[in-house]
Amino acid sequence: SQQGEEDPQALSIQEGENATMNCSYKTSINNLQWYRQNSGRGLVHLILIRSNEREKHSGRLRVTLDTSKKSSSLLITASRAADTASYFCAPSNFGNEKLTFGTGTRLTIIP
Amino acid sequence: DAGVIQSPRHEVTEMGQEVTLRCKPISGHDYLFWYRQTMMRGLELLIYFNNNVPIDDSGMPEDRFSAKMPNASFSTLKIQPSEPRDSAVYFCASCRAGELFFGEGSRLTVL
Fold first, then answer.
1. Cα separation of A89 and A61, whole Å?
2. How far is B16 from chain A (nearest CA, A)?
3. CA-CA distance, B34 to B50, in Å (whole number)?
4. What sign has the CA pseudo-torsion B79, B84, B85, B91?
5. Cβ-proximal residues to B104 (8 Å cutoff; 6+ apart), any chain
6. pLDDT tens for residues A61-100?
7. What is the DSSP string of B8-50?
8. For residue B85, what are the contacts with CB-CB under 8 A and spacing of at least 6?
9. Distance CA B68, CA B91 (A)
10. Does the pLDDT of residue A1 top 70, yes or no?
Protein backbone atom coordinates (compact mmCIF):
# COMPACT_ATOMS: atom_id res chain seq x y z
CA SER A 1 0.00 0.00 0.00
CA GLN A 2 1.02 3.62 -0.17
CA GLN A 3 -0.08 6.73 1.58
CA GLY A 4 -0.85 10.05 0.04
CA GLU A 5 0.78 13.31 1.02
CA GLU A 6 -1.63 16.18 1.55
CA ASP A 7 -0.80 19.79 0.92
CA PRO A 8 -1.08 22.30 2.51
CA GLN A 9 -0.78 21.01 6.06
CA ALA A 10 -3.14 23.73 7.24
CA LEU A 11 -5.55 26.10 5.54
CA SER A 12 -7.73 28.87 6.96
CA ILE A 13 -10.37 30.62 4.87
CA GLN A 14 -13.44 32.78 5.36
CA GLU A 15 -16.83 31.16 5.36
CA GLY A 16 -18.28 31.17 1.88
CA GLU A 17 -14.92 30.95 0.13
CA ASN A 18 -13.72 27.88 -1.73
CA ALA A 19 -11.10 25.57 -0.23
CA THR A 20 -8.67 23.55 -2.30
CA MET A 21 -6.35 20.89 -0.98
CA ASN A 22 -4.01 18.61 -2.86
CA CYS A 23 -2.74 15.07 -2.64
CA SER A 24 0.31 13.48 -4.21
CA TYR A 25 1.23 9.81 -4.33
CA LYS A 26 4.05 7.72 -5.69
CA THR A 27 2.93 4.57 -7.47
CA SER A 28 0.13 3.55 -9.80
CA ILE A 29 -3.35 3.26 -8.38
CA ASN A 30 -6.77 2.34 -9.61
CA ASN A 31 -8.67 4.60 -7.26
CA LEU A 32 -8.20 7.39 -4.74
CA GLN A 33 -10.41 8.23 -1.81
CA TRP A 34 -10.87 11.33 0.33
CA TYR A 35 -11.88 11.22 3.97
CA ARG A 36 -12.83 13.89 6.51
CA GLN A 37 -12.16 13.81 10.24
CA ASN A 38 -13.94 16.18 12.58
CA SER A 39 -12.19 16.84 15.85
CA GLY A 40 -12.41 13.85 18.18
CA ARG A 41 -14.32 11.69 15.68
CA GLY A 42 -13.56 8.85 13.32
CA LEU A 43 -12.80 9.40 9.65
CA VAL A 44 -15.73 9.65 7.28
CA HIS A 45 -15.54 8.67 3.62
CA LEU A 46 -16.29 11.57 1.28
CA ILE A 47 -15.69 10.42 -2.26
CA LEU A 48 -13.88 7.85 -4.39
CA ILE A 49 -12.50 8.59 -7.84
CA ARG A 50 -11.33 5.84 -10.14
CA SER A 51 -8.19 6.02 -12.23
CA ASN A 52 -10.18 6.26 -15.45
CA GLU A 53 -12.03 9.32 -14.15
CA ARG A 54 -10.61 12.84 -14.31
CA GLU A 55 -13.21 14.64 -12.27
CA LYS A 56 -16.04 13.77 -9.95
CA HIS A 57 -18.64 15.82 -8.10
CA SER A 58 -20.61 15.19 -4.94
CA GLY A 59 -22.66 18.09 -3.63
CA ARG A 60 -20.22 20.92 -2.84
CA LEU A 61 -17.22 18.62 -3.38
CA ARG A 62 -15.24 18.40 -6.58
CA VAL A 63 -12.38 15.96 -6.90
CA THR A 64 -9.90 15.76 -9.73
CA LEU A 65 -7.35 13.08 -10.50
CA ASP A 66 -4.30 13.39 -12.72
CA THR A 67 -2.68 9.98 -12.97
CA SER A 68 0.17 11.30 -15.12
CA LYS A 69 1.17 13.66 -12.33
CA LYS A 70 0.14 11.25 -9.58
CA SER A 71 -1.92 13.92 -7.92
CA SER A 72 -5.45 14.70 -6.88
CA SER A 73 -7.24 17.75 -5.59
CA LEU A 74 -10.31 18.25 -3.43
CA LEU A 75 -12.30 21.45 -3.85
CA ILE A 76 -14.96 22.43 -1.35
CA THR A 77 -17.14 25.22 -2.68
CA ALA A 78 -19.04 27.78 -0.62
CA SER A 79 -17.41 26.63 2.60
CA ARG A 80 -19.31 26.45 5.88
CA ALA A 81 -18.20 26.40 9.50
CA ALA A 82 -19.14 22.72 9.61
CA ASP A 83 -16.45 21.99 7.00
CA THR A 84 -13.81 22.69 9.65
CA ALA A 85 -12.00 19.35 9.87
CA SER A 86 -8.92 17.45 8.74
CA TYR A 87 -8.99 15.97 5.26
CA PHE A 88 -7.06 12.90 4.19
CA CYS A 89 -6.48 11.28 0.83
CA ALA A 90 -5.96 7.53 0.42
CA PRO A 91 -4.60 6.22 -2.87
CA SER A 92 -5.54 2.58 -3.26
CA ASN A 93 -6.10 -0.41 -5.47
CA PHE A 94 -9.17 -2.58 -5.59
CA GLY A 95 -8.23 -6.00 -4.33
CA ASN A 96 -5.67 -4.55 -1.94
CA GLU A 97 -7.77 -3.12 0.83
CA LYS A 98 -4.88 -1.93 3.00
CA LEU A 99 -5.33 1.82 3.38
CA THR A 100 -2.80 4.05 5.06
CA PHE A 101 -3.08 7.77 5.68
CA GLY A 102 -0.78 10.76 5.72
CA THR A 103 -0.95 13.72 8.07
CA GLY A 104 -3.86 15.38 6.31
CA THR A 105 -4.83 18.97 5.65
CA ARG A 106 -6.33 20.79 8.62
CA LEU A 107 -9.01 23.13 7.27
CA THR A 108 -10.40 25.94 9.41
CA ILE A 109 -13.40 27.92 8.25
CA ILE A 110 -13.58 31.37 9.84
CA PRO A 111 -17.16 32.55 10.40
CA ASP B 1 -27.31 0.29 10.60
CA ALA B 2 -25.54 1.27 13.82
CA GLY B 3 -22.14 1.61 12.21
CA VAL B 4 -18.89 0.40 13.68
CA ILE B 5 -19.15 0.24 17.45
CA GLN B 6 -16.15 0.62 19.71
CA SER B 7 -15.83 0.30 23.45
CA PRO B 8 -14.83 1.75 25.75
CA ARG B 9 -14.91 5.31 24.40
CA HIS B 10 -12.52 6.44 27.09
CA GLU B 11 -10.14 4.52 29.28
CA VAL B 12 -7.69 5.77 31.86
CA THR B 13 -5.36 3.20 33.33
CA GLU B 14 -2.05 2.94 35.09
CA MET B 15 1.18 1.78 33.57
CA GLY B 16 1.51 -1.98 33.65
CA GLN B 17 -2.20 -2.71 33.50
CA GLU B 18 -3.81 -4.75 30.75
CA VAL B 19 -6.05 -2.87 28.34
CA THR B 20 -8.63 -4.45 26.05
CA LEU B 21 -10.35 -2.45 23.34
CA ARG B 22 -13.35 -3.88 21.53
CA CYS B 23 -14.89 -3.45 18.12
CA LYS B 24 -18.06 -4.59 16.44
CA PRO B 25 -17.83 -4.10 12.67
CA ILE B 26 -20.70 -3.47 10.32
CA SER B 27 -22.46 -6.69 9.41
CA GLY B 28 -21.40 -8.04 6.04
CA HIS B 29 -18.08 -6.22 5.92
CA ASP B 30 -15.28 -8.71 5.44
CA TYR B 31 -12.31 -6.49 6.33
CA LEU B 32 -11.51 -5.02 9.73
CA PHE B 33 -8.75 -2.57 10.54
CA TRP B 34 -7.19 -1.23 13.74
CA TYR B 35 -5.55 2.21 13.61
CA ARG B 36 -3.86 4.34 16.26
CA GLN B 37 -3.80 8.14 16.12
CA THR B 38 -1.50 10.50 18.00
CA MET B 39 -0.44 14.07 17.39
CA MET B 40 3.15 13.01 16.90
CA ARG B 41 2.71 10.01 14.63
CA GLY B 42 -0.60 10.68 12.93
CA LEU B 43 -2.86 7.81 11.93
CA GLU B 44 -1.00 4.49 11.95
CA LEU B 45 -2.36 1.19 10.65
CA LEU B 46 -1.70 -1.47 13.27
CA ILE B 47 -3.28 -4.60 11.81
CA TYR B 48 -6.06 -5.69 9.50
CA PHE B 49 -8.14 -8.82 9.06
CA ASN B 50 -9.93 -10.38 6.12
CA ASN B 51 -12.69 -12.85 6.91
CA ASN B 52 -11.45 -12.97 10.52
CA VAL B 53 -7.89 -13.89 9.50
CA PRO B 54 -5.04 -11.45 10.26
CA ILE B 55 -3.51 -10.37 6.96
CA ASP B 56 -0.90 -7.80 7.93
CA ASP B 57 0.23 -7.05 11.46
CA SER B 58 3.42 -5.26 10.49
CA GLY B 59 2.18 -2.09 12.13
CA MET B 60 1.79 -3.60 15.56
CA PRO B 61 4.45 -1.77 17.54
CA GLU B 62 5.67 -4.58 19.76
CA ASP B 63 4.77 -7.85 21.39
CA ARG B 64 2.80 -6.07 24.06
CA PHE B 65 0.11 -5.56 21.43
CA SER B 66 -2.13 -8.36 20.21
CA ALA B 67 -5.35 -8.45 18.21
CA LYS B 68 -7.93 -11.14 17.65
CA MET B 69 -11.05 -11.59 15.61
CA PRO B 70 -12.81 -14.70 16.87
CA ASN B 71 -15.82 -14.18 14.61
CA ALA B 72 -17.16 -11.82 11.96
CA SER B 73 -18.86 -9.55 14.47
CA PHE B 74 -16.18 -8.95 17.08
CA SER B 75 -12.54 -8.00 17.41
CA THR B 76 -10.28 -7.04 20.28
CA LEU B 77 -7.02 -5.15 20.58
CA LYS B 78 -5.11 -5.92 23.74
CA ILE B 79 -2.14 -4.14 25.27
CA GLN B 80 -0.34 -5.95 28.04
CA PRO B 81 1.40 -4.40 29.88
CA SER B 82 0.41 -0.86 28.95
CA GLU B 83 2.88 2.03 28.95
CA PRO B 84 2.37 5.83 28.91
CA ARG B 85 3.56 5.96 25.26
CA ASP B 86 0.55 3.84 24.31
CA SER B 87 -1.70 6.79 25.06
CA ALA B 88 -3.60 7.51 21.86
CA VAL B 89 -6.95 7.23 20.17
CA TYR B 90 -7.49 3.76 18.76
CA PHE B 91 -9.85 3.41 15.82
CA CYS B 92 -11.49 0.36 14.40
CA ALA B 93 -12.80 0.42 10.82
CA SER B 94 -14.60 -2.09 8.65
CA CYS B 95 -14.54 -2.11 4.88
CA ARG B 96 -16.96 -2.61 2.03
CA ALA B 97 -15.86 -2.31 -1.62
CA GLY B 98 -12.69 -0.56 -0.58
CA GLU B 99 -14.47 2.11 1.48
CA LEU B 100 -13.64 2.31 5.16
CA PHE B 101 -16.24 2.94 7.85
CA PHE B 102 -14.67 4.12 11.09
CA GLY B 103 -15.87 3.83 14.64
CA GLU B 104 -15.74 6.79 16.99
CA GLY B 105 -12.54 5.58 18.59
CA SER B 106 -11.32 4.59 22.03
CA ARG B 107 -9.27 7.26 23.77
CA LEU B 108 -6.66 5.57 25.94
CA THR B 109 -4.67 7.37 28.59
CA VAL B 110 -1.96 5.43 30.39
CA LEU B 111 -0.66 7.17 33.49
1. 14
2. 26
3. 12
4. positive
5. A41, A42, B6, B9
6. 999 999 999 999 999 999 999 999 999 999 988 777 788 8
7. -SEEEE-TT--EEEEEEPPTT--EEEEEEEETTTEEEEEEEEE
8. B110
9. 15
10. no
* Residues in chain B, overall count: 111
Separation CA B101–CA B82 (nearest Å): 27
Q: For residue B102, which amino acid is it? A: F
Which amino acid does the sequence have at A58?
S
pLDDT score for B1: 65
Nearest to A21 by CA among A33, A32, A31, A10: A10
How far from A102 is each of A82, A91, A93, A105, B68, CA to CA, in Å? 22, 10, 17, 9, 26
In A, which residues are within 8 Å of B43 by CB distance?
Answer: 43, 88, 100-101, 104
Residues 6+ apart with CB under 8 A from B40: none
Subunit contact B42:A97, Cβ cutoff 8 A: no
Mean pLDDT, rounded, for B76-83: 98
How far apart CA A56 and CA A50 sit, in angstroms, is 9
CA distance A76 to A93: 25
CB-based contact, A35 to chain B, within 8 Å: yes
- The answer to whether B98 contacts A31, with C-beta atoms less than 8 Å apart, is yes
- Residue pair A106/A6 in contact by the 8 Å Cβ criterion: no
CA distances B86 to A33, B6, B11, B60, B78, Å, are 29, 18, 12, 12, 11
Cα angle for residues A40, A63, A25 (degrees, 5° grid): 80
